[in-house]
Design goal:
The chain has 268 residues and is α/β, with parallel strands linked by helices. The chain has a single domain, classed as Metallo-dependent phosphatases (Purple Acid Phosphatase, chain A, domain 2), CATH 3.60.21. Helices cover 24% and strands 23% of the residues. The chain is built from six helices and 14 strands. The protein has a five-stranded mixed β-sheet with strand order 1-7-8-11-12. A five-stranded mixed β-sheet has the order 6-5-2-13-14. It has a two-stranded antiparallel ribbon with strand order 3-4. A hairpin with a 3-residue loop joins strand 13 and strand 14. The chain is globular and about 55 Å long.
């Protein structure tokens, strides 16, 4: 694991923060259109073209890959935008699993990883290597805009802002968990945001919700596009929510939409 700097307070907005894409390239391109960006792939994806509205940059909350139909194209678009200085990304748990697979680690092809492996089977070794390096350098979260904003995949507590450690990285990937699996073989999650009291606004994904709703100065913008929901962006600092509907249901949910429960021993 390569721990990256997370204190980006000198990087200022405006940003368009985009929820979990999970290989939904068509919806991403449509959402870009709503936000004033452009993206296209030519020569079977070998050539990527993107355009960005003046003064704005995209920010992805991670989980670019798995479960959806076009993970390879999503990674191509996002890596191209990052290279041009037009986008930022924090690492998601699915991105991390795929990176570890590319590193030769023993990773089970579950939770949609098999679809990503199939998608990338036609990619060159050079591209796979650049993808591995790209995901390996992503931070667990980013503390931005003079400390007013933080972006994470699954979340970040106030005491973790701007820090880099194994514990902070793991929290960024999975949020607050019990360390046990539920009946579906998924990690048991708890709602860390129910106790958040920080002045920094935290925008995150990971747990699909039907509609984004502010809670204690936090906002989950994973609206389950890959499950037939929506792909959502938050325009910052305007706090305007922009969404597009999924064009299909690409994967079946094992849990209902909605934030997880509060950890029992901390419940009121």
């Amino acid at each position: 694991m390569q721990l990256s700097n997370t204190d980006w307070r000198d990087i200022r907005g405006p940003f368009d923060i985009i929820g979990d894409v999970h290989g939904c390239a068509d919806e991403l391109i449509e959402l870009f259109g709503r936000l004033g960006y452009t993206a296209s792939l030519e020569d079977n994806g070998a050539r990527v073209r993107t355009g960005t509205p003046p003064g704005r940059r995209a920010f992805f909350v991670g989980d670019l890959v798995d479960r959806g139909p076009r993970s390879l194209d999503v990674v191509r678009i996002v890596m191209h935008m990052v290279a041009k200085g037009h986008a930022f990304v924090v690492v998601g748990n699915h991105d991390n699993r795929f990176m570890r697979l590319l590193q030769g680690r023993d990773v089970k092809l579950t939770h949609g990883l098999g679809e990503t492996v199939n998608d990338f089977s036609r990619a060159s070794e050079d591209f796979r290597g650049r993808t591995r390096s790209f995901f390996g350098a992503l931070p667990s979260h980013a503390w931005l805009d003079g400390g007013q904003l933080a972006v994470a995949h699954a979340g970040v507590r106030e005491d973790m802002l701007g820090r880099s450690s194994d514990a902070v990285y793991k929290f960024g990937l999975y949020g607050e968990t019990s360390g046990q699996l539920d009946e579906n073989g998924l990690p048991k999650r708890f709602n860390w945001s129910a106790h958040y009291a920080g002045k920094t606004c935290v925008v995150y994904g990971h747990t699909p919700v039907a509609e984004p709703e502010w809670l204690n100065n936090t906002l989950c913008i994973d609206t389950g596009c890959v499950y037939g929901g929506m792909l959502t962006a938050l325009r910052w600092p305007e706090r305007e929510i922009v969404s597009v509907l999924a064009q299909a249901t690409y994967s079946q949910r094992k849990r209902p939409f909605g934030l997880p429960p509060v950890r029992p021993e901390r419940a009121p």
